[in-house]
Specification:
437 residues; alpha/beta; Four Helix Bundle (Hemerythrin (Met), subunit A); 434 Repressor (Amino-terminal Domain); 8-stranded mixed sheet
């Protein structure tokens, strides 16, 4: 994903917390999160405010029934979302023609982003016009022309001066829903660029000024955002080059400092590699929680009902085959067991555990048939199943005696794994499913 470096550091902190056996790791994890954000180029003053808010929120939630680890994860998640903007923000095309002016320095990827944005709106049924206003960079108009041909979007005629280009084409604006202006950049926001961009802004009268900044800009992103914001009043931000190795924290928090919202992120060079920016989904990915959210959503879509008593017994490692039978029907709807386990943060998914989960997933249908041939006593007391009973169960289910023995063997191994696993973490997961433990 984008921002892999920052994400990996954050995930390590969360993993350390999930694998802890007590509350002593909380402060250590907070320190780990601070280090991750610092190395990710997040503004230091913002980090300190963030860390203090995390501590305050943890303290305020004491005694409200949540485990400390769960509380820390929820608090970190919620506060990171707040930094990035708690809700998904879109450019609201509320008038026609709607004029978007892209601004930024050299190397930010404005021209490619202009085409990506045009493609995005064209696919949604808007009539889009590209306006090449970069007369400073050689071949800028030619580049935009080639990109416009790829997406079959009209591009306005060229000119020697950006203000003249606007004036020459303003009469045709009424024929389009969205006009996207690709302005010129410089190595820095110097006097010449300030003068030019002010003139463009006055002539174009954009409904939205969008700053394009690359993810590798680091903490300099804050300086750039502030300068452009003071000059023009930035409405939105598009992050580019997020597919590289850049930490990206500086670019993300620059948006927070300016008050402008990130609306899109460029995830690659291809014309369709532009994604809407959703802070909640983004933070879930940064913390490695996106799989859990997907799992919860799928469970909701499948209308899966959880047998709370069986779940409680499974978590404690005190379950029998009757409890396993109850859970198999729901599990089949969600997908392979080893894949489900990989979606749960902190769940062991390697070595013997992985092999056990894979075998269960492969044989879940056959195991269900075998259990259909067992008596109530055998399901509740698997230890009573001897060789004679195994033979009877195999004949009744149409399965081999070997497979019946494998079910019993996996049942015993599962009990051992659950007793040794992080039961508090699994309890937290089940609370997310609405199970009262």
């Amino acid at each position: 994903m984008a921002f892999d470096s920052l994400a990996n550091r954050l995930k390590e902190g969360i993993k350390k917390l999930l694998n802890s056996t007590g509350n002593e790791k909380v402060e250590e994890v907070i320190t780990e999160i601070r280090k991750a954000l610092l190395e990710g180029d997040v503004d230091p003053s913002l980090i300190e405010r963030f860390i203090q808010k995390v501590r305050d929120d943890i303290k305020s939630k004491k005694g409200k029934g949540l485990l400390t680890r769960e509380r820390v994860i929820d608090v970190i998640y919620n506060n990171l979302v707040d930094v990035l903007g708690s809700t998904e923000t879109k450019i609201d095309v509320n008038t026609v023609p709607y004029k978007i002016l892209l601004v930024g320095l050299f190397g930010s990827g404005k021209t490619t982003t202009a085409a990506k944005l045009a493609n995005y709106y064209k696919k949604r049924g808007y009539r889009v016009l590209l306006l090449g206003l970069d007369t400073f960079r050689p071949a800028a108009f030619e580049q935009l022309t080639q990109l416009s041909k790829q997406i079959n979007v009209k591009i306005a005629s060229a000119g020697k001066n950006p203000v003249d280009i606007i004036k020459a084409n303003v009469a045709s604006f009424k024929n389009y829903d969205i006009i996207i202006g690709d302005s010129a950049g410089r190595d820095a926001l110097d006097e010449n660029l300030v003068k030019e961009i002010k003139g463009v802004n006055e002539a174009f009268k954009p409904n939205n000024v969008t700053l394009v900044i690359p993810a590798d800009l680091g903490q300099n992103a804050s300086v750039q955002v502030k300068a452009f914001h003071e000059l023009l009043g930035i409405n939105s931000i598009i992050l580019t080059k997020t597919d590289g190795t850049a930490n990206g924290g500086g670019a993300l928090t620059a948006a927070y400092i300016s008050g402008a919202k990130v609306v899109f992120i460029g995830t690659g060079e291809k014309i369709n590699e532009l994604e809407e920016f959703d802070p909640k989904k983004f933070v879930s990915k940064l913390l490695g929680l996106e799989g859990l959210e997907s799992l919860l959503k799928k469970a909701e879509e499948e209308n899966i009902q959880v047998n709370e008593e069986s779940v409680k017994k499974v978590i404690k490692g005190e379950f029998n085959l009757m409890d396993i039978y109850d859970q198999y029907a729901s599990t089949k709807k969600l997908g392979p067991m080893d894949k489900l386990a990989s979606l749960i943060p902190g769940m062991p998914t390697s070595g013997n555990t992985k092999e056990l989960l894979e075998k269960q997933g492969e044989n879940i249908g056959k195991f269900t048939t075998i259990m259909d041939s067992m008596t109530k006593q055998e399901l509740e007391e698997p230890n009573t199943i001897n060789s004679a009973r195994i033979k009877r169960i195999a004949n009744g289910s149409g399965q081999t005696e070997e497979l019946v023995r494998e079910l019993l063997d996996q049942y015993k191994k599962m009990k051992t794994v659950m007793k040794m696993s992080n039961n508090k973490q699994i309890s937290g997961l089940m609370r997310r499913f609405g199970v009262k433990l």
